[in-house]
Predict the structure.
Amino acid sequence: MNTLKKRILTGDRPTGKLHLGHYVGSLKNRVKLQHDYDTFILIADVQALTTNWEDPTQLGRDVREVAKDYLAVGIDPKEANIFVQSMVPQIAELTVFYSMMVSVNVLRHNPTIKTEAAQKGYTDMTYGFLGYPVSQTADITFCNADLVPVGKDQMPHMELTRKLVRRFNDLYAPVFHEPEALIQGLLIGLDGNTKMSKSLDNAIYLSDPADEVMRKVRTAVTDPARIRKDDPGHPDICTVFAYQKEFAPEFACELEGACKAGQIGCVECKKRLAATLNALLDPIREKRAYYDEHIDEVEDILKAGTLKAREVGAETLAKVRDAMKINYFK
Ligand code: TRP
């Protein structure tokens, strides 16, 4: 890892296996960026606890599932530092300091928090849930990241991060870079919903076997007005076509013409899509199967990544304590 490179920090909540939405929205990009940036990837288990705290028994398994997905898609532990949030105590420490610098009202107005709270039916949010964007600020800054690849829904959190960084730097001393967001795309769900997501049950997982991919693609929502094969189709409102554009862009134009002219039916189109997806997923599944068999390697990678994150965190926290004049016994 080259410290002259700019640093990226990004991550995921471990809530189960990753899907094609993660692949399109972030994983593919991370694999590319890892060569040009000093990359830190966090498995946000503390953030997962903000909604799963009552039953954390799955968490250990989910952390490993996410790590296996990372490695299977080609995140290279020699290039990128994969680590577990709860095992880097400096993140928790920094969270406490930032929490002094933000009002409850500001946190309450965060639109992503509001949406998530409504989805979960929270009428009375916990302190930890309301404050997870503060903890996310610590995730990003404990390693002084420059760039944060995230989805659009994370923008309110990025705004808070930048605000807290400016406040810290102005109040105490210029310790942190003001990190920038790198906005990532979204993949629609099989049901045509704007986002592929586990909770909406409209996802194809990276670890789904080939026949499951075929089965799921068959259920994908297409143009409802199209009954017979030779009816002219409307690819612009078709989920399968959206996927074709994403995963087989070289054929999309031809396919669009054929669909509009009623020359290719949905069944055939779906078969082709399933074949494309399975060709993409085959090597990923193969690598994943290797890590299923070698879970000790996965754990060693997480341990080494976490150790490195702690070292970086200790350096940052020494600067933070100096800046805040709370390094009493130095
Ligand atoms: N909130 C992010 C999500 O739900 C996950 C996350 C936690 C994260 N900490 C982060 C993303 C820091 C980027 C940077 O997807």
